[in-house]
Amino acid sequence: MERRAGSFAVFGLLALLAACAPGTAPTPPGPAIPAVEDDTCGAAPYARLIGQDATALERELIMRQVRVIRPGMVVTMDFSAQRINFEIDDNNRIARIYCG
Hints:
By secondary structure, this protein is α+β, with helices and mostly antiparallel strands. It has one helix spanning 2-19, and strands at residues 66-69, 84-88, 94-99. It has a single domain (24-99), classed as Trypsin Inhibitor V, Chain A, CATH 3.30.10.10. Helix content is 18%, strand content 15%. The longest helix is centred in the N-terminal third of the chain and has 18 residues, at 2-19. It is globular and about 30 Å long.
């Protein structure tokens, strides 16, 4: 019985590690920028950055919470209506900007 409990513990640990593996965070669906009524984080002024290289963010002064999400990056599911999320695609371009 003790051996069986140990194997369940190992299985549970492996399942937990798999859940945290890179590339498991789903990309939230939606438009490239939030709709006006959903723009709680003030993302609209940064719409011009969509399609630009991610290094364009280095030249921006953004005085609020910001999160840059790269391909395969593990992202927490916490929601902050004031935070701007910049989603970077596989070509290192800004693909989407959204609040959360």
